[in-house]
Amino acid sequence: MAVLLLTVCGLVMVLCLCFALLKRNQIRRYLPPGTMGWPFFGETTEFLKHGPNFMKNQRARYGSLFKSHILGCPTVVSMDPEINRYILMNEGKGLVPGYPQSMLEILGKNNIAAVHGATHKYIRGSMLSLIGPASIRLHLLSKIDMLLRSYLDNWDGKTIDIQERTNEMALLISFKLIVEIESSQIYETFKKEFDKLVVGTLSLPINIPGSNYHQGLQGRKRVTKLLRQIMEERRASSVTHNDMLDELLRNEDSNYKLSDVEIIDQVITILYSGYETVSTTTMMAIKYLHDHPRALQELRDEHFAMRQRKKPDEPIDWNDYKSMNFTRAVIYETSRLATIVNGVLRKTTKDIELNGFIIPEGWRIYVYTREINYDPFLYPEPFTFNPWRWLDSKSLESHNYCFIFGGGTRLCPGKELGIVKITMFLHYFVTTYRWEEVGGDKLVQFPRVEAPTGLHIRVSKY
Ligand code: HEM
Questions:
Q1: The whole model's pTM is what?
Q2: Looking at the structure, do residues 91 and 25 belong to the same domain, yes or no?
Q3: Reduced to 3 states, what is the DSSP secondary structure of residue 364?
Q4: How the protein sits in the membrane (predicted)?
């Protein structure tokens, strides 16, 4: 009897093992083609070294959906516009944001990219009520006007690093919109810690003293402490403020009541998401305008024509902003040509079928949108800076495959605010100054758009 039992148990175990192996092989068989590179390191080095060319080579070999192992995770890369669109539109089917652990730990557990479903809807609603078009029209636009007018004052006769200045502008303006009064006293300390936080989000999650990740966590701790202090002081005082933090604290008037930790994560997210995106797009717009005098002339004409309708110190209002079609086209064309965002990351919460392949649960999907920006059918002569293309076809912005600001339920909620900041910067810059490049500065396009030693320009009165 015992022998029979043992034999049956053994048979069952063998069958289970066979089934598991079969299942594994099936999944393997149904994964998209591709290579996984070295154990642990995968193909990260090739990806970082050859960037867009690595992606294009893999696509040529394996098609628009291929597997790889990059940045520490088994990953499926999608370069197919239709599949990319499907992924962005179908978060509910188990395709949630898949940003690295280091990023989520540092930006906070209530950070918008870390939450899904109903919580995401709520956090996003709160975010849009703070930075969406209605808020821009009512409060933010006039403040940004004032802040940028003063930021760009006094540049005459100077040689500056425009990368450094646009970087400073992007954080400073957001910070002042969040904490108007306190910003002047604590900005320098805050920026120092915030910059550590930013570097930490893009690091390997190794928490040992001296590592970028450790510094990032320390940065978050100090940023949180500074924000908590301000929140406590404001609660203890009867003075009201006209800024985003006050709006977040005045829970009782709001449709969106957030806890203190949620408020802190929301503030960090706003500062983080609108930092490099806005600063790099502004820097690259200045670069492209410098290299394309006809586009610069048309942009200047638009701004001077608008200025002529106004008194010298009158701020720009929503209607003025909305009338600046060419400026908007310059911003879109800059984002497209420079590709400030290469793509977005998702991860599967269950096995997902994509284009006939099975992507196992827990895999990352790199929705790689960069190449769509250079598709000659969408953008004829794709490597030419041609802002006019956005005027000729009004629908280009809302084209199904225009992913400059993402898409679906995660479409950038700061899109309009970002465009407003860049527009206002350009307004005061091109109507006050002319500029020439000092020359010789190198620009790197991948994995981030940056000028490693700065982008130096000589500025003089226009
Ligand atoms: C030129 C400027 C900008 C570009 C190119 C840009 C691009 C993007 C892209 C591609 C996404 C999609 C991410 C994903 O699907 O995972 C996104 C999301 C997001 N952006 Fe922007 N962005 C810009 C400016 C801003 C600004 C100024 C803010 C805030 C003040 C902001 C806040 C956000 C937030 C909070 C999300 C996450 C939305 C969600 O998960 O629901 N962005 N952005």
A1: 0.92
A2: no
A3: strand
A4: Single-pass membrane protein
| 443 within ligand 1 shell (Cβ under 6 A) | no
What pLDDT score was predicted for residue 21? 45
Question: What is the distance in A from the centroid of ligand 1 to the CA of 437?
Answer: 30
Amino acid at 96: V
Among the atoms of ligand 1, which is closest to the Cα of residue 410? 41
Distance CA 206, CA 102 (A): 9
Q: Which residues are annotated as a binding site for heme?
A: 412
CATH of the domain at 315: 1.10.630.10
Distance from C-alpha of 67 to C-alpha of 87, rounded to nearest angstrom: 16
DSSP E strand boundaries for 71-165: 73-78, 95-97, 159-161
- Cα–Cα nearest to 438, from 460, 462, 422, 405: 460
Please write the tens of the pLDDT for every residue from 383-418: 999 999 999 766 888 889 999 999 999 999 999 999
156-209 residue pLDDT tens = 999 999 999 999 999 999 999 999 988 788 999 999 999 999 999 988 888 999
Ligand 1 pocket: which of 124, 244, 273 to mutate (most atoms <8 Å of CB)? Answer: 273
Ligand 1 centroid distance, CA of 227 (Å)? 22
CB distance 352 to ligand 1 below 6 Å: no
Minimum-distance ligand 1 atom for the alpha carbon of 335: 5
Q: In what order do the strands lie in the sheet with 343-348?
A: 65-70, 73-78, 364-368, 343-348, 95-97
Q: Is 340 in the pocket of ligand 1 (CB under 6 A)?
A: yes
Look at residue 344 and give its three-state secondary structure: strand
State which residues form the domain around 17. 1-29
DSSP letter (8 states) at residue 360: P
245 & 324 share domain = yes
Please indicate, yes or no, whether residues 1 and 141 belong to a single structural domain of this protein.
no
Q: Is 405 in the pocket of ligand 1 (CB under 6 A)?
A: yes
Model pLDDT, residue 10: 54
Question: Which residues does the chain have with pLDDT short of 50?
Answer: 1-6, 9, 15-22, 24-27
CA 332 to ligand 1 center in whole angstroms: 14
Give the Å distance between the CA of 277 and the centre of ligand 1: 8
